[in-house]
Amino acid sequence: MAHNLSQCLRLVHAAAASGAKALFLPEASDYIASTSSETVSLALPTTSSPFVLGLQSAAKEFRLPINVGIHEPATTEEGHKKKVKNSLIWIDEEGRIAQRYQKIHLFDVDLKDGPTLKESNSVERGNEIVPPFETAVGRVGMTICFDLKSSPTPPPSRSPPAKLTGRLFSARGPSNRNAMS
């Protein structure tokens, strides 16, 4: 995660230097694990994640909102980590997490003559659409990766449409790209 944070901070510096009004980083910017169990073991709460805390500090320092995909622990009622949340957070220019979206449509696919990929093995499904919200760059809506491929769920009817949509995805290899086509 330290390497990913340093790469993201380079992008924050470049965005700020070029006068950007916001920075949009991809899904799973904090890490991509090799196994489901590793994915779960690496997840930290945003309040103690060096990755998130580093981006919050940079957002505040440069007064630059950051939209970033991260993993958060999903705990059982007994408090055990069994899965993660695939989350998209909006860190405002004060460094606060102002919005949070949890991926709804998980990437579960069995490709003919190819791999079987089951995001649901390690990721807890979200259950709520976040209405578009006002930012310094306009009204922003949030979705992640396979949410794009799935039938769109409109935001609540009283919300004006988003001008920007934080639709993040990571290219994890040919099988994901083929399934997204």
Q: In what range is the share of β-strand residues? A: 25-35%
Could you give the order of the helices and strands?
Answer: HEHHEEEEEEEEEH
Quaternary state of the chains: single chain
Helix/sheet category: alpha/beta
The major β-sheet equals: 5 strands, mixed
**Global mean pLDDT:** 83
Report how far the terminal alpha carbons are from each other: 29 Å
What is the CA-based Rg, rounded?
Answer: 16 Å
Number of helices: 4
> Overall 3D geometry?
globular
**Uncertain segments of ≥5 residues (pLDDT<50)?**
165-181
Strand count: 10
* Helix fraction by DSSP (H/I, runs of at least 4): 10-25%
Description:
The chain is α/β, with parallel strands linked by helices. The protein is built from 4 helices and 10 strands; from the N terminus they run αβααβββββββββα. The strands form 3 sheets. Strands 1, 2, 3, 4 and 7 form a 5-stranded mixed β-sheet that branches. Strands 8-9-10 form a 3-stranded mixed β-sheet, with no helix packed on it. Strands 5-6 form a two-stranded antiparallel sheet. A hairpin with a 5-residue loop joins strand 2 (66-75) and strand 3. The radius of gyration is 16 Å and the shape is globular. The two termini are 29 Å apart. The relative contact order is 0.16. Mean pLDDT is 83; it is low at 165-181.
